[in-house]
Design goal:
Blueprint lengths: L8 H12 L14 E5 L12 E5 L6 E5 L7
Antiparallel strand pairs: 1-2, 2-3
Bound molecules: zinc ion.
Length: 74
């Protein structure tokens, strides 16, 4: 992974909440709608069995990775 700027934990939580409820997540920094990309198993050659989603802000390029194993609350 590269070392782009990251969201704070609070911002990340807001994105997780919105996305977890099936709403379009907006970037807390600039209000842009986050782009969702599915990361399929095997894409990285690591044999991931679980599905992951990558939410990326098209404006500031911050991103959050979600594991979709179960609920987003821990
Ligand atoms: Zn942004």
């Amino acid at each position: 992974m590269d070392q782009r700027a990251q969201f704070t934990p609070e911002e990340e939580q807001a994105i997780r909440s919105a996305h977890g409820e099936g709403r379009a997540a907006e970037c807390p920094r600039d209000g842009a709608v986050m782009t969702v990309r599915e990361i399929g198993g095997g894409s990285f050659g690591l044999g991931y069995a679980r599905r992951r989603e990558w939410l990326l802000c098209p404006r500031c390029h911050r991103s959050v990775i979600f594991d979709r194993r179960r609920g987003t609350r821990t």
